[in-house]
Amino acid sequence: MKRVGLISLGCSKNRVDSEVLLGLLAGRGYTIVSDPAQAQIVIVNTCGFIEPAKEEAIDTLFEMAEYKLGGSLELLIATGCLTQRYGEALHEGMPEVDAFLGVSEYERIFEAIDAAYEGKRPLFTGEGKRFLESPRILTTPGYTAYVKISDGCDNQCSYCAIPMIRGAYRSRPFDAILAECRALSEGGAGELTLIAQDTSRYGTDFTPGKSQLPELMRAIDSLDSVRWLRVLYCYPDTVDERLLDALAHLDNVCPYLDLPLQHISPRILRAMNRRGSPDYIRTLIARCRELGITLRTTMIVGFPGETDAEFEELMAFVREERFDRLGAFTYSPEEGTPAAELPDQIAEEVKQERLDRLMTLQQGISAELMQGRIGEICEVLTEGKADGRYYGRSRLEAPEIDGKILFAAHGSVEPGTYRNVRITGALAYDLLGEEV
Questions:
Q1: Residues facing residue 405 across a β-bridge
Q2: How far apart are CA 10 and CA 162, in angstroms?
Q3: Do 239 and 232 form a contact (C-beta atoms < 8 A)?
Q4: What distance in Å separates the CA atoms of residue 256 and residue 238, rounded to the nearest whole number?
């Protein structure tokens, strides 16, 4: 059988799609290789969310095409969000690519391969199956895995192209998610992270007006093989008391809420078409603090028309709320979105200056919060060793996006094992400790 290499770009949701695709290929007998120089078929699962992601995808496709000149590469296939959004343009403008599949067409990969070998350059970007219930090949370490619970989005934020790419919100069947969580955890992935474009809306297309995420979390929490369960990408107006109770009190659920807020100015929030008033947001944050839930958020700076005063309002809000984790991005105008047509677009240098100021503020807040954890004893999932110290994460650090806990241990510690660690020191985003 042919040797296949796959490069996955973009978010963790795209990673899950890539893992499903790898599982399909392996199930058909294809040999999966990690080095594209050794592959006969290379698949690039692209991201098309913002301009830098598009550029990375195009650059990666051109880079992979070079292997046709001096390597064993026979076919180059583009899949994912960029293909879904710009399939016809890519088909016309990139003759180096032999086949194109959109985000709902992964089950047609074998049809695409066969057609490409016949020289047909297929383009499949229709509405196929949103969820393929087939075994995945994990690209994460075996002890941790992402689980996608829905796809698409109905929020219609004015700056976001996801609804144009992924379509309307659709929840994955409850029993299918539970079965996958059981299989993954029994296979060694004791840490599971639920993801979607909007996780807290899960199940509202099954039971209108009521999220089934808390019920899903309770069902997964009851699985003996699950040690840690966390949830990312919640939307403020669908975070209710049931969800907060699950986060705060279920034994295996990490008390960690990822709540992208984007801004706090009421005018900017309206222009972004974001639901939830500043007062509601502050009340929700206060309730999370009462329950001891670690908060992560994301902000956008430089949205069209953002005044100096509105940016200072955002800075004051971050200074006041002291988020445990905060990421930020400069606004990126995406064609086809309402925000891209707004007047008073902000100059790039102003956006960058605001981003630098915000992240400098957060760095200081994070450093102070990290200092406050000195003396704490926490369970740490070991991920590896570097510079003489082991490193890993506690329940309060999400994979890939948060800091690490660097610790000295009594003897050798294998990745994927858990150790109790006393925190003895702090950096801006990382912690230092010793095994108890």
A1: 392, 431
A2: 13
A3: no
A4: 16
Residue type, 174: F
Distance, CA of 229 to CA of 191 (rounded, Å): 6
CB contact at 8 A, 17 and 64 = no
Residue whose C-alpha is closest to residue 62's, from 87, 86, 96, 100: 96
- Tell me the domains of the chain and their CATH numbers: 3-124 (3.40.50.12160), 144-371 (3.80.30.20), 377-435 (2.40.50.140)
Q: At what angle do helices 81-93 and 51-65 cross, to 10 degrees?
A: 50
pLDDT band at residue 70 under the 50/70/90 scheme: confident
Which two structure tokens, joined as six digits, stand for 108?
A: 């047609």
Query: Are the beta carbons of 57 and 9 closer than 8 angstroms?
Result: yes
| pLDDT tens digits, 243-278 | 999 999 999 999 999 999 999 999 999 999 999 899
Q: Report the 10 Å Cβ neighbour count for 148.
A: 24
Would you state the structure tokens that stand for residue 326, as one six-digit string? 């905060």
Q: Fill in the DSSP letter of residue 432.
A: E
294: nearest Cα among 398, 190, 211: 398
Which amino acid, 34?
A: S
- The tens digit of pLDDT for each residue in 82-123 reads 999 999 999 999 999 999 999 999 999 999 999 999 999 999
Non-local (6+) Cβ contacts of 93 within 8 A are none
314-318 contacts: CB < 8 A, separation 24 or more? 314/263, 314/264, 314/265, 314/358, 315/357, 315/358, 315/361, 317/264, 318/358, 318/361, 318/362, 318/365
Say if pTM beats, i.e. exceeds, 0.70. yes
DSSP state of 173: P
Q: Is residue 131 over pLDDT 90?
A: no
Separation between Cα atoms, residue 159 and residue 381, nearest integer Å: 37
Tell me the one-letter amino acid at 77: I
Phi and psi at residue 39, to the nearest 5°: -85, 145
DSSP state of 139: S
Structure tokens at 36: 């594209």
